[in-house]
Design goal:
alpha+beta, 3-stranded mixed beta sheet, 3 helices
Length: 111
């Protein structure tokens, strides 16, 4: 019997596994510094503490003929710097993702 060629895939969130970074750092502060460096000025971004996994939701609104971009980023207490940086760089729509991730990871200061 040959395997089926299915075009649909179902993912059960109960069986998704994420890396749990044991490092102790302020993940929300890291995300906020990263967003400032990425200059997401036209996009309104809300950052909050998530319970289980890194969550990124974004969209567009049209209000009085103007387009407004928004995003919500949920960061769990076990997220790694790399995971956060990669998600934010993708959200910002940066052309050179690897370079931008390295730039954010190089800035490990508390300022």
């Amino acid at each position: 019997m040959r395997p089926r060629d299915s075009r649909y895939e179902e993912v059960d969130p109960r069986f998704q596994h994420e890396y749990h970074d044991p490092a102790d750092f302020d993940r929300i502060a890291f995300a906020m510094r990263s967003l400032r460096r990425l200059r997401t000025g036209r996009m309104k971004v809300a950052v909050y503490t998530a319970v289980s996994g890194l969550e990124v939701k974004s969209g567009r609104e049209f209000h009085r003929g103007e387009e407004a971009l928004w995003a919500m980023v949920g960061i769990p207490p076990h997220a790694s710097r790399e995971h956060i940086a990669y998600a934010l760089v993708e959200l910002a729509g940066v052309a050179s993702v690897p370079y931008a991730v390295q730039m954010l990871l190089a800035d490990d200061g508390d300022g």
